[in-house]
Amino acid sequence: MLKRKKLAARWPALLPKLVPKLVPKFLPVLLTTLLTACAIAPGYNLDTSSLKEDAPGKPAQSYAVHPIDADLILQQAQQAAAQQPALPPGKFSDPSQYLYRVAPQDILGITVWDHPELTTPNGSTLSTGDNTTQTLAGAVQQPYTTALPGQADPYGQTVAPDGTIYFPFVGHIRVAGRTVGDVRNELAARLLPYIRNPQVDVRVLSFRSQKVQVTGEVKSPGPLAISDVPLTLLDAITRSGGSTEIADIQRVRLTRNNKLYVLDADSLLDRGDTTQNVLLQAGDIVNVPDRVDSRVFILGEVKTPQTLSMLRGRLTIADALTQATGLLDTDANPRQIYVMRGFKDSPDHPYKPEVYRLDLTQPDSIMLSSRFQLQPLDVVYVGTSASTTFNRVVQQVLPSLESLFYLKELTR
Q1: Is the whole model's pTM more than 0.70, yes or no?
Q2: What span, in angstroms and rounded, lies between the C-alpha atoms of 410 and 22?
Q3: 101-206, CATH topology level
Q4: What is the pLDDT of residues 146-193, one digit of tens each?
Q5: What is the DSSP secondary structure assignment for residue 258, as one 8-state letter?
Q6: I need a surface site. Which of 65, 210, 284, 363 has the fewest CB within 10 A?
Q7: In CATH, what number does 294-390 get?
């Protein structure tokens, strides 16, 4: 114990003599420790000992860079005009040709004038499958928006699963797949032996057999009944309460016969393109997506790197840079405004991205930046200036140089 106290008292005097002798011996160990300090230093670090990487022997791929100029802008506009998305095939080319055909589970109302025993009384009510009832007049107005929820109804002529109904004096008559006019004419012809000059009227009281599903970003998603009034894409969105604030109506998805079609409902409202307002039919599924797939990423030397949503399917380079609050004044290279676009499938170069570059130092670059249209999932990257790269390297090396300088001073 006494020896330890004496050594501690003499330690300040011995330290200047021991440092010059010990540092040359332990300097390699000290440098190795500094270089591997990231493994034991506090903070986030990844242990890569369990990771196995391939040897860097493969040559790096090269990508062609397309300069953004007036010719490219013109080519982009021509390609956008020439690209017409495939429209789903339909039974009717024009809504004026549309005819509703009766199907099982529909409820028919049949009137035979001057024969009340064969006619449904106007005062009768029919069940909606809930705790309330609905009058005949209400049922006539109801089908143009939604189908009645009732499954079995004691009132009217419900079309059986085999497509037939039963009517007095006539018996079973097939009505499925036929128009109300065809059913009316057949009933009148088959009542002639029993009624002189019968006057018959047939109408659908409840359209329950055919429906369209509307899902996604609409205010009231759910099924819509197919009625004798043609139902178009815009009608379906409107009757579902309209689209929400985050809906992407430029990329409405329609599933028909197990095939997916993308329709642009915005072009109908913005440019009057009626070809996108397709006539819906039974079994269609309309999905109004959100704007998750219509994103653009702004990275690199900008003041606010972020993800931007395309407004009504459109966004230019100027819009993207403005929303990112501009370029970093001292760090950005205005000659290197890159746009990385998707992957281009080709036999020779599968999944090869397209790269475009804009030089903001040129006089016409400002106008070009406001005309170049970005596409969903594009990446806009702003390059770094050479001086900034050099300064950042110096900042990384400077702490190590300072440590070596102080270590050298201590050895003197």
Answers
A1: no
A2: 12
A3: wza like fold (3.30.1950)
A4: 444 444 444 778 899 999 998 888 889 999 999 999 999 999 999 999
A5: T
A6: 363
A7: 3.10.560.10
